[in-house]
């Protein structure tokens, strides 16, 4: 299983989730800053967690992707909605593969209707309040209505 997930806010920081060897990593960083150069009280807001990419974790991920049709998300979500490229705002990107399935999808400002389920899965796996980490300022667009 391979996963690369990226979320960033203009001038606000970023969250990266990816697989390396037999681990899944969650990393929160300030945009364009080196953590070691920040005061300790600010450094605590930016961190990295890792979990073993066990069969149980793979099953949670696979079930979430299957139940929420994440494998079928369009490559360019904004374009699929009929929007041109947006030059400012938050960005997200997901690239994942497991067995014979794979997905590459990205967007700006808009999200698939099941995006929050993906984020809830990451929250569960890493035991973090992901929605709080990204301030839950997402404009969820319902795929069924477009």
Backbone shape: globular
Q: List low-pLDDT spans.
A: 136-146
Structural class, by secondary structure, is: alpha+beta
Kindly provide the radius of gyration, computed on alpha-carbon positions and rounded to a whole number of angstroms. Answer: 15 Å
Number of strands: 8
Percent strand: 25-35%
What's the layout of helices and strands?
Elements: E1 2-9, E2 13-20, E3 23-29, H1 40-43, E4 48-52, H2 55-67, H3 77-81, E5 91-98, E6 101-108, E7 110-111, H4 115-126, H5 130-133, E8 139-140
Parallel strand pairs: 7-8
Antiparallel strand pairs: 1-2, 1-5, 2-3, 3-4, 5-6
Could you characterize what this model shows?
With 146 residues, the protein is of the alpha+beta class. 26% of the residues lie in helices and 33% in strands. The chain has 5 helices and 8 strands. The strands form 2 sheets. It has a 6-stranded antiparallel β-sheet with strand order 4-3-2-1-5-6. A two-stranded parallel sheet has the order 7-8. Helix 2 packs antiparallel against helix 4 (115-126). 21% of the residues are buried. The model is unreliable at 136-146 (pLDDT under 50).
Short description:
The chain has 146 residues and is of the alpha+beta class. The chain has helices at residues 40-43, 55-67, 77-81, 115-126, 130-133; strands at 2-9, 13-20, 23-29, 48-52, 91-98, 101-108, 110-111, 139-140. The chain contains 5 helices and 8 strands, in the order E-E-E-H-E-H-H-E-E-E-H-H-E.
Please describe the structure with a list of short key phrases separated by commas or semicolons.
single chain; 146 residues; alpha+beta; two-stranded parallel ribbon; 5 helices; 8 strands; globular; disordered C terminus
